[in-house]
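I'd like us to work through together how a protein chain folds, taking it slowly. To get us started, please write out a protein record for me. Label the sequence line and the structure token line clearly, so we can match residues to local backbone shapes. Once you have written the record down, we can walk along the chain together.
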Amino acid sequence: MLDIKFVRENPEVVKENIKKKFQDKKLSLVDEVIALDEERRVAISRADELRANRNRLSKEIGALMAQGKKEEGMALREEVNAQARELEELAAKEKEMNERVTSIMMSIPNIIDDSVPIGKDDSENVEVERFGEPVVPDFDIPYHTDIMETFDGIDLEAAGKVAGNGFYYLMGDIARLHSAVISYARDFMIDRGFTYVVPPFMIRSNVVTGVMSFEEMDAMMYKIEGEDLYLIGTSEHSMIGKFIDTITPESELPKMLTSYSPCFRKEKGAHGIEERGVYRIHQFEKQEMVVVCKPEESAIWFDRLWKNTVDLFVSLDIPVRTLECCSGDLADLKVKSIDVEAWSPRQKKYFEVGSCSNLTDAQARRLKIRIKGENGNYLAHTLNNTVVAPPRMLIAFLENNLQPDGSVKIPQALRMYMGGTDKIMPKK
């Protein structure tokens, strides 16, 4: 969320940013919120004036009563009572306008970084760099669920009966591989200096609206009926919420956290044939990284975070590339994002396996996440990035490590989490 003072002083900058994000329907919100803010400030000024006048009159009433001038004192008291009624009305008006201003401000997108390419959607994201050599083997790579089925490793039919579409049972070696990847990702991040955290898997509505836009909330979050609780779509939501209404001394920054959680998402909308199986699902597990830092350090941390994901995938013999997300593909709170995509030998193309985002002070402003500095308190910057999110990551792993005999090679880095084995063999 932007600072209302910034919007007031830079309306054309804010409007131009909205145009860059192809959200022209929001242009009118800028003038609307500036007008509301002016009306609110007039009301606040009048309320302050009335309070000062009330204090002055109260002293005068006391003096008049002491002098025995009861009639004059009572006349002034009636004036004070009238002003008290006006103050009460102004307080209600101010509360209403505060809510309206906040609601509008939460719909106006953050100012994107100057380096972000301009484009309407993810089809206009820009490739930055490739890591590892993408290989297409001289044998056919089956669809990922077909590979899993040769290991008796997945049951979508039973999951459909139990929970519906978008759920799955993972079993045997495939389930173990899933857990091994999560454990490896956890230790990988701990070795890089991050503190491991298992957060709450449900959060309150004020945290939800603090970490994401209304559009994301509607498209993603499952609400617990009868409770002010939502299932998290990613542990970032809970992790950023950990710092709500806090003031952290500069000396304790940066906060470098890596968190494990299940994730729950509605995944609204129709998806293509390449998103059947376990591409887009309602429940999955994820290892995340989150950083809370000083504003001048967030650009440095942004590059460090996405490089962690690249290094992890390369260590598992999975070629990846990075994509700079264009303006139209950025969620409203994000200033800059890099997607990490893994190579699919079967599709002969890359597909998304993670995303790194810098939100600068947008979440911090909503959640009052502040830093205590020598010259006073100021807002922190927050960043997040996917370490791994199986089972989607398993698709890339299985395709890139599948052998001609149907076995799957286990890279050296993962063997200690798979009982020391260097490969898993199909059951059929």
User: Anything to note?
Assistant: The chain has a mean pLDDT of 92. The chain has 14 helices and 18 strands.
